[in-house]
DNA sequence: GATGAATGAGATTTCATTCAT
DNA sequence: CATGAATGAAATCTCATTCAT
């Protein structure tokens, strides 16, 4: 009634048991979203899935929003971690292939969660900021790669690296989503191959000193 | 949503005034979704935006779902109509440019609405079917175009037309959506240029008898 | 979920039926508070008492707080209106008697509601302001009366009118509360007599040109 | 509140540490009520203020009600103890002054706590009885004092001692509470002076053999 | 048809109390 | 004894849908 929150602001759990429950709720929350979508994402569903009582939810999270933010953060971290390409890989085309393969592999579920948030019901400023950060990570990384190739004389110098990264990154992102939704099961490895060839051709990638642009 | 209905089934409006109200509600509904997302899409908001009383909603629509279906249908029709490229345009590259320009111009918001439905709370079989149809329209059209170019010896014959269409179509679709969400204002015409060059390069489009793949 | 209120902000009812329901809810709310105290003041109890459904509460009031504010406002208005002493009454002592009689008569229930708010669970800034206003009304009126008597040479000139009004007003206010709570039934008219004599003696009120301070 | 209890009944603390914790909780509880009112009075807030863990609450108190009763009892004891006027003080007016000074000094907050209980959410028979006792103590003491003065010919014999004590006691009590709530800071000593003069004049107190009723 | 009030099941959140460690 | 996590009934609020006028 018009008064400030009087309830205990949830604090980080101090005991092992507390941490277990806390983590279980995040895992359960993610699972609920993935399986039942927005409509199913209720504190009740989450606690039931985690096997704890209703009230326990608010021992660890201020609100549904709060849990959502943490789920998104976790999904984003996971996506980014899993889609990093090792520095030891030198060949530009191989790097493209690897990046695409990892992206498609990594983003099945995580991307689904992120999309749901993006186009779903609830977007406060915190979440919007989080999503923009994630996008910026991918766009920036893609633009850097393109710029390096241009500087090495390996890619079309007329392309704006950032616009190109937005476009080609969008291609891969969108394909990742479609794969998870299409009825027709796509051969993922074949799609990785196509995406890589399209990406390479699009930026005019050529093997140093070679006439052929992409491996046959 | 999903409650049994006991309401009189709304009938198609018979008077001119009825049709006007009906259409105004669809327009208002679309506007509400675009501007306020799912959270704002309530009968209350829609009727207020349309300037009619609350109860009028159910004079014309069985339910929120019902209106949603009609909004999606309208958005899809509009997208498809506006993104058709006239047959009179012969030059392949010019057709690509034109298709991309029209897509970006016409469909940013419509695509956003479709995405929302896709990832939003409510996806009944009707809606899912509708979305698949729309996607199939674009993918099919893109694949046909690529296949024709391949047959004419103007595009890389090693590419699977369908996979390629999914990937490149996804690129344009994703860019269309992103443009409306990014903080940085993109120069649309420059983006059209980039998308077109990327698309053309990606499929190895070459002007008949020319060495250069894309216009400078 | 972190979004602004999307629900219709309740608007003043436009139809007669609406006004009836609105008023019934305020009456019911007041009755619930008086009879069951804070613990019983729930939207459910209020709507049941008013004979409407639960949801109707939020057709007219933004929140429990909102209704509470209106109840307090109504109680205050009622108290103030009923405790006004007609200007036609000239004799100072008679005015004191009349003011006390009206105060005790008027404030049984209203004062109970106000006390509950004051010492009860919920005091946001709006309510606090409202209560201060009410108090100020009584203190100001009392101080004015005392000052006038002092200027007419009818009351002890050494008294600070404001402090005196706070003290004597508090006396009457407190007695009003006690009357409603004590087991022992007090003779109200006798109490009015005592309060008036105490008040008059306290300020040294003397009839013009008379030795006796108060009527026997 | 009002739930059946299955908890082990807390036992009186046996160790020094136990007593310290027990007392700290009562002090903290009182502080919480005074500062944050009913809304803030939660086991959580009390234990935090006392610097002990949540669960410890129920080591010492059966319930919130239980703590409340002890707080009220402590506040009452304190009020009564601190407002006792030493028997060595003989002069009637000086006794009035001293009683008022002590009451204002000691009991503003305690009185507020008692009021809160009175008008707050929870009033079981135990509490009600306690409050009536406290009131009776003050009313009885006041009435006795007035009766003695009347018998000594020092006060208006027409006044009903009990009614007068209720009224004048209410005056002081109310002022004590109001002082803590008013925006305008009152000069307490000046208020003591006024209260005393008003009280004395009201009962017609006159110094034996003196014409002036109250010190100038 | 249009209007706006009414409905009530369901979602979110609170918090006094209990319990495992 | 102390700790802090767990519990769940009850409170507040939402909103798609229905209904009386």
From TrEMBL, chains A, B, C, D:
GO MF, any single term: transcription cis-regulatory region binding
SUPFAM superfamilies in alphabetical order: Homeodomain-like, Tetracyclin repressor-like, C-terminal domain
Domain HTH tetR-type: 19-79
Keyword set, alphabetical order: DNA-binding, Transcription, Transcription regulation
InterPro entries per record: Homeodomain-like_sf, HTH-type_TetR-like_transc_reg, HTH_TetR, Tet_transcr_reg_TetR-rel_C_sf
Ranges where the record places region Disordered: 1-20
Comp. bias intervals (Low complexity): 1-16
DNA-binding region residue numbers: 42-61
RNA-binding in keyword set: no
PANTHER family the record matches: HTH-TYPE TRANSCRIPTIONAL REGULATOR BETI, HTH-TYPE TRANSCRIPTIONAL REGULATOR RUTR
Protein name from the UniProt record: TetR family transcriptional regulator
Lineage per the UniProt record: Bacteria, Bacillati, Actinomycetota, Actinomycetes, Micromonosporales
